Amino acid sequence: MFARATVLCLLLSAALGAQTFCTQGTILKHDTLPANPSGAQNVSIIQGLCEGEAAASVFDVSSLGPTVTVNECGILFAASGGATAASGRLQIYDGVTIAPNGAATLGPKVYETTGALQYSPNAFNTADISASNVVITSGKLVVAFTMDINLNYNIPFLGCAGGYYADFATDNTAGPGSPCTTQPGTNLLLAQGAGWWDVTQFSVGGTPICGIAYNGNWVIRACVTNSLPPATYPGTAADLVLASSVGLTTPDLTDVKSTTAGDYMNFGITSPGGGLVGLELLFVVELFPTGAPPASPFPGIAVTGNPASTFLLVGDGAGPFGPALIPPQGFNAAYFVPAGLAGTSGLFQAIVPWVGAQNGIFESTDGHEFQVM
After folding, report:
1. 167 closest CA partner among 137, 140, 189, 182
2. How far apart are CA 364 and CA 373, in angstroms?
3. Are 206 and 98 in contact (CB under 8 A)?
């Protein structure tokens, strides 16, 4: 990896010139480029970031409050000439610990793109995740972009050994071989077979890469706001969102609500990034005495599936709405609260069976509890 780095005057695409990143919230970035870069910008292409590897920025968000919500993220994918798009994923982690030797241990992963994220060349590529309620509680936000497919080889060499003429970029303008100017603890990389490292202490064959094949800061940004508290019943942190409300109010992400007999409970289920559109939707509810929620043994699944208390509302031909595939605009449903359930709570959760999930089985929304008063 990290065959070499190239410094160039990069002419960003015309489409980028009209782009506005983070219209509401706080922009987090380490690079020196403008908040919304356009026109010619001096950057370095880190040509040796290979397929299966990743770039990440660490942001200290402790001064913004005990919890923050991540609404949007972006990265610069640069090219020294004409190039084709690459693809990967956005991953967000809550916290990081960096050992004295530079090895990094990331905190819990709280979001990952479902499906492929396309990186357009010579563009600041963004992902809007504002509908996913991605909450950071550790005070350290780690925004990572993987490189899964990059066909921009340097001919006649194929693959990472020859470097890529289009790859992730840093704000470095000094060029390879200059002293390492990167601040420790701010820029990470995931190297094949080596795990996550602070780039200021990572070496290849005993040679440090910072100042030779890497310098400056990844052009990675995040847009954050003060947030809702962490989910009471967290799902799999994927591209699947459940919003809910009581009566005529607008569905929101608050996951514990009160209701009474005669109310209507409203639900909206979406795949904001479109990664799960067209797949089968299972929408379930589990009843339990208020104050004694079920304890599911399955990661990302709040309901237990106990046949005495769990009911399938949508999916597999069951329920009043029958089977459902997630449409592009999302799925909506409303349910009437019957009499006789005072002191009982209903825990609702949407689940999508999908072989592309990290566990190979399902993705799920956060669970929403409705307490019947």
Report:
1. 189
2. 27
3. no
